[in-house]
């Protein structure tokens, strides 16, 4: 039976970033299990904003070269209310720009770096069972690509296998563990379109017809989102309806949303969830396996990176110095940051969306909130700081 210091379930942002930090920063080996194919991981469409801390982590650990070359790096975002756009000068207010770099491009860079370093990623491999996390040694039972049952032992295991993680219940079943949830009365309809950029910078638009977001992928592929009903299906949104709604919500006399062939349509549900604690013995949760944020502000990937920025030095200290103080503090260090991101994503969502059947009072109050933020330097600075993200935690090993 083979052994690895760290077994990592899931080749998403949490898993691949942890594997990379362990190897690059501390020379610690790990095995990454991923139930999907490499192609699936590298092609699944997700959000795409990198916080300044995430950009720096990529650069400092040798995986930032393509991001610096290909990402759409902007100094500002626009926030519109009833057709009036306000520029949030992120760089001027915080010293940091924002980067649109889709999650699957991030994953491609980490997969390439890991394979180039001769490290293992087991694609098409399903983890069936994890045991031993309350004792001295973890055992992972898995089915190989060919369907063969195998086992691997590990000193520690990290589950970064997404919001449906089967491992989460091992923690939530503990006495005193909490899984806190919130549902939202709206969703996003996301499209990819072959069209030139509408403008260089992103536009978050609050309009009486509902929210819309103008984002980008490449100079010739754009990413747009429209607020929709959570129960909407793709067939309810014809191309004609999409363009009509985007123009109503965003286009003005001096700016027209650029149109083209739509080649991807999907409904994204809004959910918030936080698991606390994120540890049980030798088992750790990170990323969406532990927490989900709604998409507004695109904090999901960045939160996974923040989790493993604690976990990687924590595991290194435990494995190299036989000192588990940082690992034992994982939940108390990670969860407060999760709540801050949760709050920011909730706040941006509630301030920018129209509440279905919203009453006059609620609508006017939330417009006043948005105007207060946009019209004061203090308000714009707060929004900008949260948007570009807090610094990532750093620990000596
Ligand atoms: C994107 C997604 C977001 O949730 C966001 O706030 C900004 C951009 C995107 O997919 O491009």
Automatic annotation (TrEMBL):
InterPro entries in alphabetical order: FAD-bd, FAD/NAD-bd_sf, RIFMO-like
A Pfam family that the UniProt record links to this protein: FAD_binding_3
Annotated GO MF terms: 4-hydroxybenzoate 3-monooxygenase activity; FAD binding
Alphabetical UniProt keywords: FAD, Flavoprotein, Monooxygenase, Oxidoreductase
First-level EC class: oxidoreductase
Enzyme Commission code(s) on record: 1.14.13.2
Occurrences of domain FAD-binding (ranges): 4-344
PANTHER family per the UniProt record, alphabetical: P-HYDROXYBENZOATE HYDROXYLASE, TRK SYSTEM POTASSIUM UPTAKE PROTEIN
Protein name: 4-hydroxybenzoate 3-monooxygenase
Organism: Corynebacterium humireducens NBRC 106098 = DSM 45392
């Amino acid at each position: 039976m083979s052994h690895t210091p760290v077994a990592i379930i899931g080749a998403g942002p949490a898993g691949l970033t942890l594997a990379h930090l362990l190897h690059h920063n501390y020379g610690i080996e790990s095995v990454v299990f991923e139930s999907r194919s490499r192609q699936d991981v590298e092609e699944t469409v997700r959000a795409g904003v990198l916080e300044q801390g995430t950009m720096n982590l990529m650069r400092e650990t040798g995986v930032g070269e393509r991001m610096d070359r290909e990402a759409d790096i902007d100094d500002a975002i626009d926030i519109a209310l009833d057709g009036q756009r306000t520029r949030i000068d992120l760089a001027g207010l915080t010293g940091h720009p924002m980067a649109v770099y889709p999650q699957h491009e991030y994953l491609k860079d980490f997969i390439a770096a890991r394979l180039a370093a001769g490290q293992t990623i087991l694609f098409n491999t399903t983890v069936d069972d994890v045991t031993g996390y309350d004792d001295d040694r973890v055992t992972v039972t898995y089915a190989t690509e060919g369907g063969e049952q195998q086992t691997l032992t590990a000193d520690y295991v990290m589950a970064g296998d997404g919001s449906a993680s089967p491992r989460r219940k091992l923690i939530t079943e503990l006495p005193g563990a909490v899984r806190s949830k919130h549902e939202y009365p709206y969703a996003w309809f996301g499209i990819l379109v072959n069209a030139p950029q509408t403008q260089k910078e992103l536009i978050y638009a609050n309009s009486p017809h509902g929210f819309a977001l103008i984002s980008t992928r490449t100079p010739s592929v754009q990413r747009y989102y429209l607020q929709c009903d959570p129960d909407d299906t793709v067939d309810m949104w014809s191309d004609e309806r999409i363009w009509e709604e985007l123009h109503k919500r965003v286009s003005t006399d001096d700016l027209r949303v650029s149109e083209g062939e739509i080649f991807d349509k999907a409904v994204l549900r809004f959910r918030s969830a936080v698991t606390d604690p994120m540890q049980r013995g030798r088992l750790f949760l990170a990323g969406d396996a532990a927490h989900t944020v709604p998409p507004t502000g695109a904090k999901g990937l960045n939160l996974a990176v923040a989790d493993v920025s604690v976990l990687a030095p924590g595991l290194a200290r435990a494995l190299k110095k036989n000192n588990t103080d940082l690992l034992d503090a994982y939940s108390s260090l990670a969860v407060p940051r999760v709540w801050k991101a949760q709050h920011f994503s909730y706040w941006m969502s509630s301030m920018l969306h129209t509440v279905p059947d919203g009453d006059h009072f609620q609508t006017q109050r939330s417009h006043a909130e948005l105007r207060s933020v946009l019209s004061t330097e203090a308000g714009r600075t707060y929004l900008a700081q949260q948007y570009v993200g807090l610094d990532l935690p750093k620990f000596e090993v």
